[in-house]
Design a protein that fits this description.
about 475 residues, Immunoglobulin-like, transmembrane helix, Ig-like_dom, 3 domains, five-stranded antiparallel sheet, mainly beta, immunoglobulin domain, Ig-like_dom_sf
């Protein structure tokens, strides 16, 4: 992202650059300000650089002069900004003053240009009455809340089959500058269980999903038939191991209050469920929830919601905990040599779930191209490991080179691992099977040890012979 303010031809200008990709609240991102050119002969160090976030002065690194090949100097300065969701309406300003300038050089960038706020999703249901009959219609509303930028794609699915896609649905601007939208799909009630899901792809990031299940439980009441819809819901977003998530079951239309709800994780009953049975009109409504502690190995775990009415099985459904689990990756970077001029730098991303990650190589905050296609491996515990190789020309001389592997996972703040590129590493590198420069010394040591063994054996044999002769 680059903003540049030009003056007349030959006159100094000012430019402001930010990160090349959008990033999430909580991340610290760099902004670089450059002003010039100034004639080195007439230019003194009597200048200052001021950074402002909105109207407040913002701290920055010390400014410095950078000469070019034409006898000119450029003023440079860097400021780091930790983004928040409210920064959709904020801006960053760089101002350079010098006594030789008629007026300060000034440029401004909106932080919304580098900010991405991930939406939250939920589905609500609305019926025409307390009793829902077969072939009635239920309004399912997908709420997509507080996101930025405004563009996204929304898809409705029924039992994992696409039923409608909206490329860019109309969104409403919130007071904090983010956007929200609602979209309603009308579903027909049937006795069979059906899952409806709202999928959202925002700013080319991994998709987000909210889902609800509708099912009609048929029972006779006179000549008519009615159904009892239910909802079985978990959290809207994934959580890390060590987090307790809440699962909730709700249903209505029970003829009596003799309803029991049992929750089991991997066939073991979960403690302390909270179940409420409320009388409403001529029927009873049931709400039950339980807290489930997520662990690293819950990729293959499941929870069963078991409902009985008058000691008879009324409802049972299995929930896979993998849809609520997020295992953050660990990121490491190391280097090895491939030839006299190329260094192989590897980024190892270990034990993460789900599989969707975005990996970027950076050098001095600039994106590097040319990395090989990432290689994924599924671990025995269901998590994933990724390796990505980047070949770097080590013969390029200059200041200390710092390579960064940045990994974005499930809309969380990116994880970074840095490596100071060592040009000495490839000179000391030896392929497997190579003897290396220390082999002659090793042979010499073995030769000396062998000579000593021969001398000892010779002395021992002479001593024994003399003893026998005596």
């Amino acid at each position: 992202m680059l903003l540049e303010t030009d003056l007349n031809a030959g006159q100094p200008f000012i430019s402001l650059t930010g990160p090349s990709q959008r990033t999430s609240p909580g991340d610290s991102v760099p902004f670089n300000c450059t002003a010039g050119p100034f004639n080195s002969k007439d230019f003194s160090r009597d200048f200052s650089v001021t950074w402002l976030k909105d109207s407040d002065e913002h701290p920055a690194s010390a400014q410095r002069l950078v000469p070019d090949n034409e006898g000119n100097d450029f003023i440079t300065s860097k400021a780091w900004v930790t983004l928040t969701r409210q920064d959709v309406s904020s801006e960053i300003t760089c101002e350079v003053t010098h006594r030789a300038l008629v007026e300060p050089l000034k440029t401004t960038m909106n932080l919304s240009q580098v900010l991405r706020v991930v939406p939250t999703l939920k589905i609500t249901t609305e019926t025409s009455g307390t009793r829902v009959r077969v072939q009635d219609r239920v309004n399912l509303t997908c709420h997509v809340l507080h996101f930025y930028p405004a563009h996204l794609r929304l898809t409705w699915m029924e039992n994992r089959r696409m039923i409608q896609t909206l490329a860019s649905p109309q969104a409403t601007r919130n007071r904090d500058g983010t956007y929200s939208l609602e979209h309603t799909w009308q579903a027909e009630v049937t006795p069979e269980e059906r899952e409806f899901a709202c999928w959202v792809v925002h700013d080319e990031q991994p998709p987000l999903k909210a889902n609800v299940t509708l099912q009609g439980q048929v029972h006779r009441q006179g000549k008519g038939r009615s159904v009892q819809p239910y909802k079985l819901q978990g959290p809207l977003q994934r959580s890390e191991p060590g987090t307790r998530i809440r699962l909730t079951y709700t249903s209505s239309g029970f003829a009596t209050h003799q309803v029991t709800v049992t929750w089991l994780k991997n066939k073991h009953e979960l403690p302390n469920p909270q179940t409420s049975i409320q009388y409403s009109g001529h029927t009873y409504n049931v709400t039950s929830s339980v807290l489930v502690l997520l662990t690293d190995d819950d990729v293959f775990s499941h929870v069963i919601c078991h409902v009985e009415h008058k000691l008879t099985l009324f409802f049972q459904k299995t929930i896979g905990l993998d849809q609520y689990l997020r295992v953050p990756p660990t990121v490491t970077v190391f280097q090895s040599s491939t030839s006299s001029s190329l260094v192989a730098v590897t980024c190892l991303v270990q034990r993460f779930y789900p599989q969707n990650v975005h990996l970027t190589w950076l050098e001095d905050c600039h994106t590097l191209k040319g990395a090989e296609q990432p290689t994924f491996k599924k671990n025995d515990d269901g998590s994933y490991t990724l390796e990505n190789l980047l070949l770097v020309n080590a013969s390029v001389r200059g200041p200390e080179r710092v390579l960064t592997c940045m990994v974005e996972h499930e809309g969380q703040p990116p994880k970074r691992a840095n490596l100071i590129l060592s040009t000495r590493a490839h000179t000391a590198y030896k392929p497997i099977g190579s003897t290396g420069p220390e082999m002659p010394a090793l042979i010499f040591v073995v030769f000396l040890l062998g000579l000593k063994v021969l001398l000892v054996m010779s002395f021992t044999a002479t001593y024994i012979c003399r003893r026998w002769n005596l």
